[in-house]
Amino acid sequence: MSSFEQKYNDGIVKGFLLSALVWGIASMLVGVWIAFQMVYPELNIGPYFTFGRLRPLHTNAAIFGFALSIIFATGYHTVQRLCRVRIWSDKLANLHLVLYNLTIILAAITLPLGLSQSKEYAELEWPLDLLIVVWFVIFIVNYFGTIFTREEKQLYVALWFYIASWVTIPILFIVNNLSIPVSWIKSYSVFAGVFDANIQWWYGHNAVAFVLTTPFLGLMYYYLPKHIKQPIYSHRLSIIHFWSLIFIYIWAGPHHLLYTPLPDWLQTTGMVFSIMLWMPSWGGMLNGFLTLTQAKEKIKTDATLKMMLVGVTFYGMSTFEGPLLSIRSVSGLGHNTDWIIGHVHGGTLGWVGMMSFAAIYYLVPRIWNTNLYSERLANFHFWVATLGILLYIVSMWVSGITEGSMWRAIDSTGALKYPNWVQITETLKPYRLFRGIGGALYFVGLITMIYNVIRTIRTSGDGFKEIDLRVGLKEAKAQ
Amino acid sequence: MNWFDKLLDWFSGFTEQWEKHGVKFTAYTTVAILIGGIFELVPPFFLTKTAEPIAGTKPYNALELAGRDIYQREGCNNCHTQMVRPFKWEVDRFDPQHSYGKDGYSKAGEFVYDHPFLWGSKRTGPDLAHESQIQPSAEWHKTHLINPRDTAKGSIMPSYPWLFEESSTLDATDIANHMKGLRKVGVPYTDEDIASVATLVSGKTEGDALVAYLLKLGKDTAELSKNLQ
To answer: For B181, which of A120, A180, A249 is closest by C-beta distance?
Structure first.
């Protein structure tokens, strides 16, 4: 074990795992808070903690704080093992960790101060954008340095997904953030109006693709087979769905702009490619599922595997719902409503969140060389999180469809049936309350996991022994 | 499915070669994502750049621009859209005076001076694209911003009383700098526009600016269509 530890740099994995826990709490706590602001406006504490300022804090902390931390932790962990070399430069890795966390801390300060470019998921002002470019370049140099000095010739499928992410994220990020600074805290996008919208949703949709999807597919392709000790179901399915996924995803942005003044042909292109995207997405889901079925009897006892199963299920569901919502007529009803919020959270809480938790439960005992403090608590986390997600998305489905229907309802004289906006807001209140409760349940799960992780880390160095819970249970019964 | 197998054989035949070459693999991945990216961004760039501004659409004056900055700072776009879609029910709701004739939805030409666009993606509160025509009273907007429940019982919007406090008085130098910056990205501000900042904003609060911005939304195009009618 000790020679193993020397070969790979796991310190950097630890660093990013701990970052994930911290930013996970921050993002989800703010998420629960703003969910209840939607029901109780007195929870808006001005000027720094109003919904308008906290919502960007929530999304940025969740995507770039929590999800990216998981991505970097698993990225550093997998690349060393799959290339069978230590990370190219330990110094660059540490610099990456420090600068990255500095950025997120500054984001957590500047967003409540109202410093915002007002572009969704790209709210940070230009000095922070430059800082991001610096550490991302540092990271990419280090990552590709590792790949180019590797001892394993074949690039395993997990690496493809990570590589595609590292290539695409900078392109999207730099183009969308091009702006003219007018002071240290304010800049204006160089693009205007319709074209600015086009760039923004090219970026916005592909942030979903290359931050929240491909790295997590990479994660799935490594940890799922590793965890169940079975090979991935089909390598050829991996090939076809990887190439078609990255090729098609990039076209889908305009489905966020249906029925706007964006040129019609572009809207239609976005819609067609979004529908086509369904197939490569389900290719990934099926590969995950079919791999899982090779160990299906383990699902009953293993919380990590259950999380992966639910994660992959929500991936399949969200990537079915996405193409559905990109159809013009469905978008006409769903666009701008709570339905979209539900859709996004199906993907983030279900797919990204569950796969992240699975990775944490897999990594923490191995990296800290000990066993998980409590399997029962992990199981509790799984159930409370799953219940939370279901409550969240079902209430948002109902709320969104109600909202869209009330907007468009017309009486027999052709006049609006609900001209009074507040009447609609009042109708949606109970659903939004249930959303908040769902989010709170999910948060309880997160706190349970963090407690479990802290207790686990305390016994660090006790030696990791893999326990097959099926055998464990039988033995327990026999005794 | 024999043809599909053959297709897969052919395709995996050369992708499997790339899997052993890090540089090649990365290069082809980049090509794969650039094709769609270029198609989506380059032709529309020329098309939307040449899109004529609707005659009568004027850039925001100093006070309105200051208001737009506040709108962005407070993240109003997280709950209010500025995009009326071409549906009867949407036009009826957000163009009740029929100020824009029978085509009361949003057009590209209305947004040519918007850096950045503020269409939003979630409509928790009403759309504001043509707000000047829906609620033209500055006094109403002020009351609403200080406490939304005073004008709309049951509203879930946050209150913004501090915007109207003395500490929120506008700084003319900042706004002049903002206009100079916007001029660099193509907004046709004249030297006189920039020289007039001080007189326009003197003694005004951030709240006044925000109200001025709300009363600018949809004003130019509504006036244009009234003249045409």
So the answer is: A180
Q: How far apart are CA A201 and CA A226, in angstroms?
A: 36
A413–B contact, CB cutoff 8 A: no
Residue in A46, A263, A336 closest to B123 by CB: A336
As a whole number of angstroms, the distance between CA B21 and CA B7 comes to 23
Asked whether residue A256 is marked as a ligand-binding residue, the answer is yes
Same structural domain, B89 and B123: yes
B218 domain-assigned: yes
Q: What is the pLDDT of residue B225?
A: 84
Among B28, B50, B72, the domain-final residue is: B50
- Examine the pLDDT at A467 and tell me if it is beyond 80: no
pLDDT above 80 (res A48): yes
pLDDT classification of B2: cutoffs 50, 70, 90: confident
B99 and B20 assigned to the same domain: no
Q: Is the pLDDT of residue A321 over 60?
A: yes
Residue B72 and residue B45 in one domain: no
Q: How close A145 gets to chain B, by Cα (Å)?
A: 10
Assess contact for A267 and A257: CB atoms under 8 A.
Answer: yes
* Structural domain that includes position B208: 62-228
> Measured between CB atoms, does A185 come within 8 Å of chain B?
no
B42 and B67 assigned to the same domain? no
Binary contact (B19, A163; C-beta < 8 A): no
- Band of residue B49 on the pLDDT scale cut at 50, 70, 90: low
What pLDDT does B51 receive? 67
Show me where the domains of chain A are located: 3-478
Residue B55 domain-assigned? no
A437: confidence class by pLDDT, cuts 50, 70, 90:
very high
Q: Are B121 and B35 found together in one domain?
A: no
Chain B nearest C-alpha distance from A139 (Å): 16
Chain B nearest-CA distance from A155, in A, is: 5
Give CA–CA dist A366/A82, Å, rounded.
16
For residue A388, what pLDDT band results from cuts at 50, 70 and 90?
very high
Using the Cβ of B203 and the Cβ atoms of chain A, whether some distance falls under 8 Å is answered with no
The token pair that represents A36 in the structure block: 């209840």
A326, A252 contact by CB (below 8 A): yes
A476 touches B at CB < 8 Å: no
Subunit contact A148:B22, Cβ cutoff 8 A:
yes
The fraction of chain A above a pLDDT of 70, given in percent, is 96
Are B95 and B44 in the same domain?
A: no
Check which CATH number belongs to the domain holding B218 and give it: 1.10.760.10
Return the residue in A177, A182, A232 with the most chain B beta carbons within 10 A, the one to mutate for interface testing.
A182
Helix residue spans in A125-234 (DSSP H)? 126-148, 157-176, 193-210, 214-228
Angle at A10 between CA A351 and CA A152, to 5 degrees: 85
Please tell me the predicted confidence (pLDDT) of residue A299: 81
Q: What is the architecture, at CATH level 2, of domain A3-478?
A: Up-down Bundle (1.20)
| Same domain assignment for residues B18 and B68 | no
Burial A255-274 (b: 16+ CB within 10 A, else e): bbbbbbbbbeebbebbbebb
Q: How far is A226 from chain B (nearest CA, A)?
A: 20
B50 vs A238 pLDDT, higher one:
A238
Looking at residue A295, the DSSP 8-state letter turns out to be G
Task: State which residue of chain A sits closest to B179, comparing Cα positions.
Answer: A182
Q: Residue B182 falls within a domain, yes or no? A: yes
Domain contains B207: yes
Count: domains in chain B: 2
- Give the model confidence (pLDDT) of B60-84 as tens digits: 999 999 999 999 999 999 999 999 9
Q: Does A191 touch chain B (CB under 8 A)?
A: yes
Token pair, residue A37, equals 């602001």
Write out pLDDT tens, residues A230-273.
Answer: 999 999 899 999 999 999 999 999 999 999 999 999 999 999 99
Size of chain B in residues: 229
Q: Which value does ipTM take for this structure?
A: 0.94
Whether residue B101 is found in the same domain as residue B205: yes
Which of chain A's residues have a Cβ under 8 Å away from the Cβ of B125?
Answer: 421
